[in-house]
Amino acid sequence: MYVPDPLGPGFEQRHLPQPPDYEGPVRAVLVRQQPLPAASRAVLYVHGFNDYFFQREMAEQYAAHGFRFYALDLRKYGRALLPHQRPNNVRDLAEYFSDLDAALTVIRQEGAREVVLSGHSTGGLIAALYAHSRPAAGLAALVLNSPFLDLNQPRLKKLAVPLLTKLGAVWPNIPVPAGLPDTYGQSLHRAYRGHWDYDLAWKPNRVFAVNAGWLRAIRKAHQQVRRGLQIAAPILVLHSDRTAWGRAWSDDFRRSDIVLNVAHIRKLAPRLGPHVTAHAVAGGLHDLFLSVPEVRAEAYRAVFGWLEKVLPADTGASAI
């Protein structure tokens, strides 16, 4: 069922077919690190917008701390993107819930008893909505890395977004400018100003186009967060300590969030549930785990220190 993954030795993938949607056949792709440690704990990582899983270091860190590591490429992203599909084309974020259901079923079949759900940016928003809507999933904890809880385009948000959101209910395929410069991608990929190597076809510097249906789905999710979610599991919300913005390159972009407004994350994080811990990581990028080494180290210390406090002692399990 698993086949070799493009990440190479130590990683393999499994297709998770889903019922067809308005574009045709659909799948998600589950990636796991091998060998699985003899542990009853696992983490499932969900990538962000214009993204897919490629962070080997993250998998190694979780394995070193006694977790089985899995990552999910959601439908219409990365490994899961099919030729007939438009990247990230979705009309309701609940469409991703069946992808998560399928992944969690496999993870538990393979021996995990405690599962931590981790998400970055849009993946963090999806993870939060899933945990709220699926209390029976029995998630042990959530780790959210710069979750996308609000838009960071104040003018668009006040003027164009309400209209486009309404149009998205009737004409979901109307193109909408994503509003993100390519400077974030430049700060990451080693071919430009960064240090990471990943597939630019799956995570391009100039982000994939979106449509009014996608924007409507995002804004509906943001409204849910504003009203307040009831996630019973403990939640760790990580974010940078500051936001920067600009279309021309600045070295400040190497140590700040240039995608989201961290003030929005701080304000809205307590609305996710009754057990939220927020932690600012000084000098962090939008994806904290792609920051410079000392910042990543601090982010990992925060994650595993917090998990040690909120999870019971692991009694171990047989690896499969």
UniProtKB/TrEMBL annotation:
- The Serine aminopeptidase S33 domain sits at 40-242
SUPFAM superfamilies (UniProt xref): alpha/beta-Hydrolases (SSF53474)
**One Pfam annotation, family name?**
Hydrolase_4
GO molecular function list: hydrolase activity
Keyword entries, A-Z: Hydrolase
Organism domain of life? Bacteria
Do the record's keywords include Zinc? no
Entry's InterPro entries?
Answer: AB_hydrolase_fold, Hydrolase_4, MAG_DAG_Lipase
Name it.
Lysophospholipase, alpha-beta hydrolase superfamily
